[in-house]
Amino acid sequence: MKEQREKVVKTLQNKLFVTPETREAIHRAASERSSKRVAEIEQDLEEILDQMLKMTTTQRVSAGENIIILTPERRIGKTTALIKIAAEWNIPIIAAPQEKQFMIEEIRREYSHEEIQLLTTREAERAIRGTQYRVVLKTELEPIEKVREMLQKIGMEQITVIGFEGV
């Protein structure tokens, strides 16, 4: 019993607790949003990501730091914002395998002329090792712990990770 409680506490550490009723309300609100509103939110997310990246270039963020936006929100353009920022800044995105195919289709649809590096954690081990990247982006479904473990394994702990995590 104590072991299970400690596991739950560790999982919830630094996380936002959301009740099932709140999750249902969030899903309901997401289904009712207009495409215009989603575009506005997506623009806000792009601006936030852009500001975070600017902070890393001006040394206001320490090397190797995690900058994670926690959100229970669904269908607000998080993936699209990551793709746009990755294209603009030429930064790789580390995605969970189950997200990758969806993202590839979106990239082809919107950025056929752009070269966007979309990698699973396993692929990133080879692709990032020895590069000059100071920042990588991560998708919502790829756990930060998994990305950090991979970066440590290849000796690239100084890379800052920016991305989203659901709650």
Give the topology, please.
Blueprint: H1 2-12, H2 20-32, H3 35-57, E1 66-71, H4 78-89, E2 93-94, H5 97-110, E3 118-119, H6 121-128, E4 135-138, H7 144-153, E5 160-166
Parallel strand pairs: 1-5, 2-3, 2-4, 4-5
Give a brief description.
With 167 residues, the chain is an alpha/beta fold.
Entry keywords:
single chain; 167 residues; alpha/beta; 5-stranded parallel β-sheet; 5 strands
Terminus-to-terminus distance: 24 Å
Estimate what percentage of residues fall within beta strands: 5-15%
Percentage of residues assigned to helices: 40-55%
Shape: globular
Mean pLDDT comes to 85
Instruction: Compute the CA-based radius of gyration.
Output: 17 Å
H/E series, N to C?
A: HHHEHEHEHEHE
Give the helix/strand class: alpha/beta
List the strand order in the largest sheet. Answer: 1-5-4-2-3
- Give the beta-strand count: 5
In the predicted model, the low-confidence regions spanning at least 5 consecutive residues are none
Number of helices: 7
Q: Describe the largest sheet.
A: 5 strands, parallel
